[in-house]
Amino acid sequence: MSGVAQADPLTQRDRLFAATYRCVERFGLGKTTIEDVVKESGVSRATVYRQFPGGRDELMLETVGWELSNYFTRLADHVRDAPDLAELLRSGLWFAHRSIGEHALLRKIMDTEPERLLPLLTTESARTLPFIADFLLPYLRREADAGRLRPGIDLAGAAEYLARSILSLIGAPGRWDLEDPDQVGDLVATELLGGICVQRNDP
Amino acid sequence: MHRETPPQAVRLLDAALTCIGRVGLAKTTLDDVAREARCARATVYRYFPGKQQLIGALVEREVANFGQHLLAAAAGAESLGDAVTAIITTGADALVGHPALTFVAAFEPELLLPHLAFERESAVLCAAAELVAPAFAPFLPIDHATRLAEWVARITLSYLCCPSDHLDVHDVAQVRALVDDFVLPGFLRPAALEGITP
């Protein structure tokens, strides 16, 4: 495109995030500089600072946030059409576990500079929890409308509980093998939905 | 730590705990610990060849104390709900009230956080499950007690690391409601006992 039209600021931010992401893949979180991002993106130094007045630290934090929201968007797309909440949680846990294990950059940073990534992830999980809870709320409503919820369940409370459960399991499977469909089915029926959904073999 | 820990080693561990609470893990030196315990540097080296061994022994002792404190809090529980609630609230209080741990969490998160994510968090959760399972054993078969204990550790960590607007993890009544509404029903179904235990 030619002319003097203002570049869409959102697009510009996205371009910067994508460029920063590529730099981090190459140099790591600690060694990537604003100069690297300027070179990679073709965006001027002044524009980078206009978009991210906090400089390098802000750019890194926002880039981690950007990649996390991409991750959760992919997760949401994967589960969106699940027929019910239990299936949504089962396929979501499987997909989330798989895709975080295969996330090459995350693995690399965890191996080489976890001390830089983890504070960013902690800050981000405060944003991620409400994102997951909001995503789950309509599915909980659908279960309620279908008469599959236990009586007296507070939907917002249930959504927060499930969001915490999911985030915890994505971060660390612990004793669970999230690749095993039988284990995931049992985990979803017991720990996650035991108090929320009426179970088929309940009296 | 075993019961036969020599009194001088106990004093050194207490001193290390005080130092870490004051200046953090990175800045605490064996000299500081010797000074705090009012003993010679050589004494420190007699019990602990280096800082790493001293910290290792300290963590081991603190974890054991934490476990005993939790089991004592749940010892009088008359129901599984009482026991789970006691473990969560007592655990949350003890972790937040631990001066050395809170210093590290606030000022040296890079030393603590690697243990709270991915493989190393899994190891922490499994260790916590083993530590706490005896509290639930009077009410559940042991494999289910361990499974519940792992879940309880997750819930507690989640509310500590990422506080909620709706629930205070130190408040017994609020935690009891969470336990009764969401955590326990799945474990109390007769069908649950036929489930798969990882």
Structural account:
The complex is a heterodimer of chains A (203) and B (198). Chain A has 203 residues and is an all-alpha fold. Chain A contains 9 helices and no strands. In chain A, helix 6 crosses helix 7. The longest helix of chain A is centred in the middle third of the chain and has 32 residues. Chain A is elongated. The mean pLDDT of chain B is 93. The interface between A and B is large, with 45 and 43 residues.
Topology:
The complex is a heterodimer of chains A (203) and B (198).
Chain A: H1 9-27, H2 34-41, H3 45-51, H4 55-79, H5 85-101, H6 104-112, H7 114-145, H8 155-171, H9 181-192
Chain B: H1 7-23, H2 30-37, H3 41-47, H4 51-74, H5 80-96, H6 99-107, H7 109-112, H8 118-136, H9 142-161, H10 172-183, H11 185-188
Helix pairs in contact in B: 1-2, 1-4, 1-6, 2-3, 4-5, 4-8, 5-9, 5-10, 8-9
How many alpha or pi helices of chain A?
9
- SSE ordering of chain B: HHHHHHHHHHH
Shape of chain B: elongated
Largest interface: A-B, 45 and 43 residues
Radius of gyration of chain B over all CA atoms, rounded = 19 Å
From the structure provided, what is the oligomeric state, counting identical versus distinct chains? heterodimer
Give average pLDDT of chain B, whole number. Answer: 93
Count of DSSP helices of chain B? 11
Task: Give a count of the beta strands of chain A, DSSP E runs of length 2 or more.
Answer: 0
Major β-sheet profile of chain A: none
Q: Tell me the Rg of chain A in angstroms.
A: 20 Å
Q: List unreliable stretches of 5+ residues of chain A.
A: none
Distance, first to last CA of chain A: 66 Å
- Overall shape of chain A: it is elongated
How far the N terminus sits from the C terminus of chain B, by CA atoms, comes to: 29 Å
Largest sheet entry of chain B:
none
